[in-house]
Amino acid sequence: MEVTELSNGICIKGVSHFYPEHIFECGQAFRWDRKGQVYTGVVDGRVAELVFDRGDIIIKNTSIREYELFWMHYFDMDRDYGKIKRVLSRDPVVDKAVKFGWGIRILNQDPWETLISFIISANNNISRIKKIIKNLSRRYGSSLIWNGSEFFSFPAPDALANASIDDLMDCGCGYRARYIKETAGIIYRGDIDLDGLKKASYEQAHKELLACPGVGPKVADCILLFSCGKGEAFPVDVWIKRTMQHFYPRHSGSNKEIRQFVEDRFGRLAGFAQQYLYYYARDGLRLFTKD
What is the C-alpha to C-alpha distance for residues 209 and 194, in angstroms, rounded to an integer? Predict the structure, then answer.
């Protein structure tokens, strides 16, 4: 892998197992928007533009130094996805899923933003989730100007903890407004250390997250998989259950049965298998739609 500085960003050459559409549209992140072949994202108070050009990754509005300090970890560049694929592809179903979603990487996102984003995701579709997050960021985040346009950072815990239920509902949160406010208060007071969840065991971290209003087993697993480095987390919702029933009908009776099956079959790579299977079922086989 070679990283070179450009006048307005960086170019990364020699990256395997990376394709923006697979990464940004597999249901794990909500603040990357596509226009043509260009993705523009707001991540941890940064605005960046990403283009995949004949195998090269071009990230605008950054530097090599910032790439080394932030983007390398965010895009999980230190992980050997070739090895992960070889292990998972021993399962013939996942082998097909891996070949379809070959460019998926699991992002290392901010636990706080991921927590609120997936509370919003409950019983929701991707377009509405993105709209609600934009509304919250516009109202409670900080202004970020880049390339002549205004963007907004994700709100801090105190901003949402001190927001009124009515104002949160005006942003489109609906019944989730109370969950968002109460959970923000928990994080703002320090009752749960989100960064500490990365060091905790999967079981302990999962249990702690369930104390947050609006967080059930599936949302907790999303937070642990997408922001806390818990590769064994396997989020199960109606869509992944439908996926498992399609591919593994003998092992998908209950959510508990599904989790036991994937733990036995995929171990600490269960979350990676889930992403490949979900994306393949949704966009490859069209078993359901993202909206």
Answer: 9
